[in-house]
Write a structure and sequence with these properties.
62 residues; 1 helix; rod-shaped; binds zinc ion
Length: 62
């Protein structure tokens, strides 16, 4: 097996990998109920998207 003549140092490796990170999920307030939802997604709290009731979620408290 081939062996590299000069290994990448721990520091060089860590500096390179310091840029690898997860991006945080974008969140906006639902215009119908105010819950935090991802943009361009149906709201899971009230089931609304673009002003229309998409999921027809029934509320328990009436
Ligand atoms: Zn909502």
């Amino acid at each position: 097996m081939a062996v590299p003549q000069r290994r990448t140092s721990k520091t060089a490796k860590r500096l390179r990998r310091g840029h690898y990170k997860l991006e945080s999920v974008a969140l906006v307030a639902c215009p119908h109920c105010g819950a935090l939802v991802r943009p361009h997604h149906v709201c899971k709290e009230c089931g609304y998207y673009k002003g229309k009731d998409i999921l027809h979620l029934k509320k328990e408290e009436e």
